[in-house]
Write a structure and sequence with these properties.
The complex is a heterotrimer. Chain A is an alpha+beta fold. Chain A has a single domain, classed as NADH:ubiquinone oxidoreductase Nqo5 subunit (Beta Polymerase, domain 2). Chain A contains 5 helices and 5 strands; from the N terminus they run H-E-E-H-E-E-E-H-H-H. Chain A has a 5-stranded mixed beta sheet with strand order 1-2-5-4-3, with helices on one face. Chain B is an alpha/beta fold. Chain B has a domain of 145 residues: Rossmann fold (3-Layer(aba) Sandwich), CATH 3.40.50. Chain B has 7 helices and 5 strands, in the order ααβββαβαβααα. In chain B, the strands form 2 sheets. Chain B has a 3-stranded parallel beta sheet with strand order 3-4-5. Chain B has a two-stranded parallel ribbon with strand order 1-2. In chain B, strand 3, helix 3 and strand 4 form a beta-alpha-beta unit. In chain B, helix 2 packs antiparallel against helix 5. In chain B, 37% of the residues are buried. The chains are: A alpha+beta, B alpha/beta, C alpha+beta. Chains in contact: A-B, A-C, B-C.
Chain lengths: 187, 208, 389
Amino acid sequence: MKTKYEAIENVDNIFGIIDQHEQRPDLSFITLEKDKVIPTLIHLRDVENYSHLVMITAVDFIEDNKFQITYLLHNYENKTDIGVKTLIDRENPTMQSGHKLWKQFATYQRELHEMFGIDFPGSPRINENFALEGWEGIPPMRKDFDTLEYSMKTYHNRSGRKSYDPKTYMKKQLKQDIYKQYPKKGE
Amino acid sequence: MKNKNDKKILENADLKPIDKDLFSNAYPETVPPLNKYMEKLANWARANSLWFLAFGTGCGAIELRPLLTSRFDIYSKGIAPRPTPRQSGVFIIGGYSSVKTLKRIIRSYEQMQNPKFVISLCSCSINGGMYFDSYNTINQIDKYIPVDVFITGCMPRPEAIMAGFDKLKERILAGKTEGANKYVENFEYYKANQKKIIKDWNMPDYNW
Amino acid sequence: MFELDRSKYPPMQDGKSEFDINSHKYLKLWHGPQHPGVTGNMALELTVSGDEVIELKTHIGYLHRGFEKLMERRKYINCFPIVCRICVPEPDTNEYLFSTAVEELAGIEIPEKAKWIRTLNLEMSRLGSFLMWLGGQASMFGMGSVGQWCITHRDYLLDLFEEMCGARVYHMYMVPGGVRGDLPDGFGKRLEAVLQKCEKVIRDSEIVMLNNSVLQARLKGLGIITPDMIDKFGIVGPNARGSGIKRDVRKDTPYLIYDQLDFQIETEDGGDGWARLIVRFKEMKQSISLIRQIMQKMPKTGEIKAKMPNPLHWKIPAGETFVRAESTRGEYGYYMVSDGSEYPRKITVRGPSYTHAMSLLEHLGVGLNIADVGGIMGTLHTYPPEIER
């Protein structure tokens, strides 16, 4: 039975890995270039027996101007997971579609298209609404979308809501700075 | 018969004649109360036979199902679930509403026949609750349909829901539940609020 | 299911029918957001020809609250109360996974007794969710009395939860670091009384349901899942075990103290709704036996919470992780990315209904009667809130 380390080494020899990180003995993350991802998934699924697609998700790194897409695969024979990560450009995000590999791929791609704005040309039902109806505005999961401001502006709010920061409120209530009496680290 | 020509023309007025028959071309009307003793008798009948629409719009609806078992037994008070809005008198809004569900709530509410009452559960419908900063849930249900009784909690226990029904009965017997008439009198206000947040407006206009 | 002469219906190719919607021979029906028995709102757009469904499209989004965006705005300890509201009949899996992901990234080890109490909580919650499912599935086929029995007995379990955690439905009990409070005195006796009642209701339901010829005729052959479909669709949980595949997260990658408990993976051959019903009955009995083992083997004394820093000013080191657990519906997973600040960078929740209720339902729904569409949603245990969160 092959191990996870052999699988990662084979992928490195054939496709070339930029970076890898082991989180637990049964979970590793490898970073690849954008156009090597779909061939890697096919290789992992057919040759290395990583036959179960667990999830596809995206993370917004606005300070680097990149989106990171993560594909998680699971192998039922040696019970390990490999996460395949890739970074794509944030201005015109588009990625090759893999909807012919697994049947649930298309649903994840629909969600990423609606929530982040990432385009997967050729994926079925990609331009239909997934969870939002009549949404005008930038895709909501991006970091530059402020959800509190949108909610306060669009939906009618009941008046009388107040918020308190615990530290300043307690200072006023007890008329002293209670945090001063706890010793700092190292004292 | 009132002259219907002096009412405002509704939005589906410019449909083709073959489709015009499907929608009604008149405004909803208020229903005045009956004379004093008949209204008291009618209120007594309404209060003791409250049938609610079995549409669980949010998470609060999960505590509605135990009410129908023998431990809490609301069948004995005359309260029963019904599958369609035409057969029910109470609409229980179970918690938060997303914009997509709000459109269906309004559509079902408008299909119910007079007199109709609304009970709203959980704190999410009062002031947004835990999802006050969410881009898809509304913060106050009061502005879109008239509500008679609010029940707080997250989520309210079955005993709390039964107490809410008792409060609704008190208000019906006192003659204070004029939600349906209030909706018609302030029709423009409610519709303006609804159209502000529901962008994909694809609803016909009824007159019943 | 439908053994009629197919020459009157449009031809099928690769699971899809070819038809012309403008030929006025087909009807589009909307199987709307309100369903009896499935605790969630999801709409199905059916295209029917007579009584046979020739195309099924799913529409979700009625319960979308934007959890992932809300969690990015809150500190880790503030995320903890909203996480359990993703799944209503079974909120403990979410709390456990969130706490485990945070503990793994922060390098916190929880004490021994806390692991046992967490496992007890998870197994009780599985039993409650199965009872609710059984009530829903029976009601979909017209057997309302079974639904009443099951919901009543789930109420007894909710009373026990109220003693242990403080609330009936949303527990908020498994904090990062351990659990919030110890078991009350005399809990074991009351739990044993409730388990005996649950055993009786499972036995009664089995007698009523498994000997019913109408249920047999409707469930046998409904929604057949063959073993080669499992990995192509990503099917997990009792839906996969009903086709004979032995997969269970509690045995494959054991978490908490499942490696110290004695149980086996329950499977059944057949792949149709009948086999899945039998698998779930077996799993209910398995949960009861696991709860009894836990109460016997649990250490009587011990710490229930590890020493934690001030949660309002808590920074988790940067990293990413994925944790999984076995819920009633299958493999549930949380993917958490942290960038070293007080707020999470991204938390993704992966529920098993993501593939069962969307791509699998669209594939299996073709060729059914209209009346069986509700039945197949029940037998696949679809649950919309975890699709759209």
